[in-house]
Design brief:
elongated, mainly alpha, three-stranded mixed β-sheet, Alpha-lytic protease prodomain-like
């Protein structure tokens, strides 16, 4: 039972809308910070602009990915193209990591060159303050639309933008102190701190998406919900060998259940269909469900080395 075409199209439209908002907003902020930062003599503001430029690249990538995941499943990709979003989120993490590293190297080069470091001027303050306001609005637009679309990529982008707010706040403080005490070195030190923050965010995004790349899970809660759904269907029992993985923020679920061995194939199939419906009604964002039916009492005879069962969940919690 796959996600309906209509629901899939709505999700893709939401991702495209969020990507366009991020693209236009970050393009404006990046341009302002890089231009004003250079004119005002602030490396920290220029670095903040480079970070926003990375967000522009991310938004372009998101638009490209939306086009890929909109393609239907085919012979080469029987599970569809949803993994493109996961891969894009991974690339996003690496882009941020290297952007942060480059900023740190530029700041260190400025400090070690022993040249007179210019003191930022007032426009650097104004553009940074405007950036904070703009980034807050952009971040929450990504969170809101990411939740509606169940998109890990949009949520990760929102986290990145919220981190940018803290980064810009740090830049604002650094530029203010540098201007107040007439010490240009402070601006370069703040630029290094900004770079370290960007790298930290990149590592966090990578570790989070790595769970999905490895078809893993760090939360057994969804499994418990699936088991409850199975128990709600008369004739379905012993849910086991259950595997749940995320594909572009949606659940792909495999599960084995037991039924009365004397039922006809049609009757057993009807129970399996009811289980599918119950799971879709209780689990948000289901892409596909595969229910395998076994005669009651025979499932425990298999030496199953994969998948989770109710007993396995209980052991993990105890």
């Amino acid at each position: 039972m796959q996600l309906s075409t209509e629901s899939s199209n709505i999700r893709i439209d939401i991702i495209r809308t969020a990507s366009l908002i991020a693209l236009i907003g970050n393009a404006i902020l990046a341009t302002l910070k890089i231009v004003v930062g250079n004119l005002a003599g602030s490396l920290a503001v220029v670095g903040d602009g480079i970070d926003s430029s990375a967000d522009v690249a991310i938004a372009l990538m998101s638009l490209f990915v939306a086009g890929i995941i909109s393609r239907p499943a085919d012979q080469e990709h029987p599970w569809g193209h949803g993994r493109a979003e996961t891969m894009a989120t991974t690339i996003l993490a690496f882009v941020l990591f290297f952007a942060g590293g480059q900023l740190i190297l530029n700041a260190l080069d400025t400090i070690l060159s022993k040249k007179d470091i210019p003191i930022p001027s007032a426009p650097a303050l104004f553009v940074t303050l405007g950036s904070i306001i703009g980034k807050v609005a952009l971040a929450y637009s990504q969170f809101f639309l990411g939740k509606k679309a169940s998109s890990a990529m949009l949520t990760a982008n929102g986290k990145n933008m919220l981190g940018d707010v803290l980064t810009s706040a740090g830049v604002l403080v650094g530029v203010s102190v540098s201007m107040l005490f007439h010490v240009g070195l402070i601006d370069s030190i703040v630029a290094i701190a900004v770079g370290l923050w960007v790298i930290k965010n990149a590592i966090g995004i990578f570790l989070e998406v790595n769970v999905e790349l490895m078809d893993g899970t760090d939360d057994t809660g969804p499994y418990s919900i699936v088991f409850e759904a199975v128990r709600s269907i008369k004739g379905a029992g012993n849910p086991h060998r259950t595997r749940m993985r995320k594909i572009a923020g949606l659940w792909d679920i495999d599960i084995d259940i037991e039924v009365d061995p004397h039922l006809t194939v049609r009757e057993a199939h009807h129970i399996a269909t009811e289980v599918e419906r119950a799971i879709k009604a209780t689990v948000d964002g289901v892409y596909d469900i595969m229910v395998h039916v076994e005669p009651a009492g025979e499932g425990e005879n298999h030496n199953e080395g994969y998948g989770l069962s109710e007993a396995g969940i209980a052991e993990k919690k105890s």
